[in-house]
Amino acid sequence: MDCGKSRRWLSLIVLAGLTFVATSPMLVAQEVQGDLSKRVKTRVQPTYPELARRMAVKGTVKLMVTVGANGRVKSTKVVGGHPVLVGASEDAIRRWKFDPAADETTGIVEFTFQSDN
Predict the structure, then answer these.
(1) pTM (2 decimals)?
(2) Are 59 and 81 in contact (CB under 8 A)?
(3) Is 78 helix (H, G, I), strand (E, B) or coil?
(4) Does 20 fall in a domain?
(5) What per-residue confidence (pLDDT) applies to 26?
(6) Burial (CB count <10 Å: 0-12, 13-18, 19+), residue 92
(7) Domain count, the chain
(8) For the segment 2-14, what is each residue's pLDDT rounded down to a tens digit?
(9) First to last CA, the chain
(10) Which of 36, 69, 101, 102 has the lowest CB atom count within 10 Å?
């Protein structure tokens, strides 16, 4: 089976009590902690890096995310995770959109990757 072309539905669990479904065979879970979970409008799934797929790298990337009052990601800081997976996670989170708020908000977002290899 070609892992790059296979698709399956995965149920994802979010710590804030939200549940949603994604079609990525490599992204197993996505967790948003704190006030950020209430503000998410648009989520972009990270692309599983080709190098990570070839190396069968799996694991969780934790990002500290600061969202500006305008709802756009202002900054990210890596809290933990495999370096091969970090770039894809940061690229995805920068494209997330949040509801505007009075102040900026900070929280943790986790992306868990699992290889089909």
Answers:
(1) 0.73
(2) yes
(3) strand
(4) yes
(5) 63
(6) buried
(7) 1
(8) 444 333 323 233 3
(9) 10
(10) 102
Neighbours of 47 (CB within 10 A): 15
Report yes or no: 92 and 26 within 8 Å, Cβ to Cβ: no
Q: For residue 4, give both structure tokens.
A: 């790059």
Single-letter residue type at 65: V
Inside any domain, residue 3 = no
> How long, in residues, is the chain?
117
Q: Is residue 5 part of a domain?
A: no
Task: Give residue-wise pLDDT tens across range 46-78.
Answer: 998 999 888 889 999 999 999 999 999 999 999
Q: How far apart are CA 92 and CA 83, in angstroms?
A: 15
| 102 located within any domain | yes
- 109 lies in which domain range? 10-113
User: Phi and psi dihedrals of 106, rounded to 5?
Assistant: -125, 140
Mean pLDDT of the region 102-114:
90
Secondary structure E strands in 1-117: 10-13, 19-22, 27-32, 40-42, 59-67, 73-80, 97-98, 105-113
CATH number at residue 25: 3.30.2420.10
